[in-house]
Design goal:
The protein has 344 residues and is mainly alpha-helical. The protein is built from 14 helices and six strands.
Length: 344
């Protein structure tokens, strides 16, 4: 009898040990195939995906070592009723319980997007669509939605001014509408009372300041002279003179960013962005200016300069003038320097 009891106890202990091991392996043991370099997998779950779609993705990417134990944990946590779209980073050495809880909670890997060197809405839509689930077509549809633009008091041309060049974090499954809503919040946050007051003192709206900043950013790479350049353009606007900004001509020619001279024939191009032929600001920005560019534009200096041109030392800085005669002499020195260096 004693021997029989001992056998039963040993059997129960052994069974308990087996159950404990199986329980541990099912819930906590590493069930992710190793990725040598990245140390993790990236799993995308598109909007509208089913539980079966998730399983197919996990299988096609060879993420799981044992799909059956994963399914068992999914059933216990009712994951098939809680599918959440997004981009998920799945680290090596993860167990089923950790993975299912992560997917069920929608704990996504953020997507960091930086706006820089963007010239127009098409470029912006292409960049965003390349990193988020939404498509370029959907983004452009929202960008050009007449009713939406009217509600903001904007046009198709100046609408890009709401996109502030910076780095932002999004969920991968952010929709086109959600993307714009986020940008509007960032825009409202940026244009605080202090910046609005500065814009008002220059008799310009935030939209106009952003357009002007986009021109100044393409005129110079030196932030310390932005306020001086801004002052020149403010003086020209106040006197109803054309801005005569070369970068706007290059934008009209679709050659913005190309380093070459602006020739006399270039100045004749018929375009609302040609500030030699049209007075006032162009209808929209010629790039998405950096936040610092906008701030330096808001710090426009008060002076009597009406002209400026590049210095003949090719430092990237400019020389400023109050009169046409002074400007002509400055421009002549620069043209001679270009000729001496064979720059076309």
């Amino acid at each position: 009898m004693k021997k029989k009891i001992t056998c039963i106890v040993l059997f129960l202990l052994f069974s308990g040990l087996i159950c404990t091991v199986l329980f541990y392996k099912t819930l906590f043991a590493d069930n992710i195939n190793d990725v040598k370099e990245a140390k993790s997998h990236i799993l995308y779950i598109p909007t509208g995906s089913t539980y079966e779609d998730v399983l197919k993705s996990l299988k096609s990417q060879h993420i799981l070592k044992n799909a059956e134990t994963f399914k068992l944990v999914c059933s216990k946590l009712d994951y098939n009723s809680h599918i959440k779209p997004g981009k998920y980073r799945i680290d090596d050495n993860s167990g089923n319980l950790f993975l299912v809880r992560k997917l069920r909670a929608g704990s996504q890997e953020p997507v960091r997007i930086t706006f820089n060197n963007i010239r127009n809405k098409e470029q912006l839509a292409t960049k965003i669509a390349g990193q988020l689930e939404t498509s370029k077509k959907k983004l452009l549809s929202e960008f050009n939605n007449a009713r939406f633009l009217d509600s903001l008091g904007l046009t198709e041309e100046n609408f890009p001014t709401i996109f502030l060049a910076n780095t932002y974090e999004f969920h991968w499954n952010t929709s086109a509408t959600q993307f714009i809503d986020r940008m509007l919040k960032e825009y409202t946050k940026f244009w605080n009372a202090s910046r609005l007051s500065k814009a008002q003192s220059l008799s310009l709206t935030p939209t106009e300041i952003t357009i002007l900043a986009s021109i100044i950013q393409k005129e110079s790479n030196h932030y310390d002279e932005y306020p001086t350049i801004a002052g020149v353009y403010i003086n020209r606007l106040n006197r109803n003179w054309p801005l005569q900004a070369d970068p706007t001509v290059m934008y009209a020619l679709n050659k913005i960013g190309i380093k070459r001279r602006v020739y006399q024939q270039d100045l004749k191009i018929v375009s609302p962005y040609n500030t030699y032929l049209n007075k006032g600001l162009p209808p929209g920005p010629i790039c998405l200016p950096e936040l610092k560019s906008i701030d330096e534009t808001l710090n426009a200096e008060e002076h009597n300069y009406m002209y400026f041109c590049a210095k003949e030392d090719f430092s990237g800085y400019h020389v400023f003038a109050e009169t046409w005669e002074e400007h002509k002499a400055n421009a002549s020195r620069y043209q001679k320097a270009l000729n001496r260096n064979n720059i076309r």
